[in-house]
Specification:
alpha/beta; binds guanosine-5'-diphosphate
Length: 195
């Protein structure tokens, strides 16, 4: 769908570095290690598109990729590092708030949540921030190949319960595995269908 037409554009650390808002934009967010890079690579059909930019201590950039002719894919740094200094977290939250509030072309945030556990407290904090910014978000469960027995169903149910408390939440969640390539086509179709 987007193969061969997805390229890294730039990493942004401040609002004045943002590319012009002349394309429809979707954004990927999630806790560090949730499987975000793997999912972005699977969705775009490229091997090493999402750079490993979420190592603790590294500069936290908002990474912009062009997706086909008329879209941007935006990769937010992973959140939830316990060891991140408060000043850094605050600075990052300021940029994130400014981005979410100030980006008219941002259609949806895909909020990645680990399919083994469902939404955690730090995920709920991001959901509240998205509510406050009035940006629609859709939960994408990752690593769906990992849970055993009915653990995946339980994580889905738990996450749905959380979503009902968040006005900005899109009610349907997407269940994915980058490893088994499940849910990838669904996610691609959602992105491609966005107007
Ligand atoms: P990020 O920090 O959110 O970008 O996460 P990565 O994409 O780097 O993945 C973190 C770890 O989870 C890596 O060891 C991946 O191999 C693993 N992982 C990512 N996606 C999947 C998946 O769909 N299934 C399984 N079993 N492991 C995955």
């Amino acid at each position: 769908l987007f193969a061969g037409a997805c390229d890294f554009l730039k990493g942004v650390v401040a609002m004045d570095g943002m590319p012009p808002d002349d394309r429809i934009e979707v954004c990927f967010a999630g806790r560090s290690n949730v499987g975000k890079s793997s999912l972005i690579n699977a969705v775009t059909g490229r091997k090493a598109l999402a750079r490993a930019s979420n190592t603790p201590g590294r500069t936290q950039e908002i990474n912009f990729f062009t997706l086909g002719e008329d879209r941007y894919l935006v990769d937010l740094p992973g959140y939830g590092f316990a060891e991140a200094p408060k000043a850094k977290v605050d600075q990052w939250q300021q940029l994130l708030k400014a981005y979410l509030a100030g980006r008219a072309t941002l259609r949806r945030v895909f909020l990645l949540i680990d399919g083994r556990h469902g939404a955690k407290k730090v995920d709920e904090e991001i959901m509240s921030l998205l509510d406050a910014s009035a940006v629609t978000f859709q939960v994408v469960l990752t690593k769906a190949d990992k849970p055993r027995g009915d653990d995946l169903e339980k994580a889905i149910e738990r996450t749905r319960t959380v979503l009902r408390q968040h006005p900005a939440a899109f009610p349907e969640l997407i269940v994915t595995s980058s490893e088994k390539k499940t849910g990838i086509e669904t996610l691609r179709a959602v992105i491609a269908g966005m107007e």
